Amino acid sequence: MALNLDPSKTALLVMDYQPATLGFLDDPTSLVSSAATTADTVRRSGGRVGYVRVAFNDADYAGFPEGHIMGDRVKRSRPTMDADSPATALHEGLGVRDGDIVVRKSRVSAFSTTDLHEQLTNLGVTTLVLAGVHTSGVVLTTVREAHDLDYRVIVLSDGCADPDNAVHDFLVEKIFPKQADVATTAELLSVLLAETGTR
Fold this sequence. Notes:
- The chain is an alpha/beta fold and 199 residues long.
- It has a six-stranded parallel beta sheet, sandwiched between helices.
- α6 links the parallel β4 and β5.
- α2 packs parallel to α8.
- It is globular.
- The relative contact order is 0.20.
- The mean pLDDT is 95.
């Protein structure tokens, strides 16, 4: 596909790349390495990089109403999903840099319990490139919310993964194209490198 974007108004969001959510993969090394490479290229092209992680403190756990499906699940997972647990830290292979956006969320979407939209707006970001796990969780929910917030959305099909490959394929092929452009990491990098004249 042909992508056209202004890197200065673009942000890559790497979402839930943390041990607690990557555990379904036999080896997340290639996924993480690809995200790190993509982030470096986005930075060099003049774009922004943001990282989203899901984790909970005492107030977050207490804030779930009785019978909340997600809340009941994460409460049972304590202390694994605690905000200071190694399992909820961003994967060390991502190479987070000073100046990158980093937010912690306590719901599924990257936006609903964070100031991410405010930070992106203040930086003049109008295009979001999404990579995340799970495809059926944070990616699906963030695509919908980002679209409703009037961002242009690009989903990196190979920057997302899900425990159910069939669900991943269905979302990427049938659902996301209704509200986002779907591209491979190689396609995005080709555009960014062309923009910086280093292809």
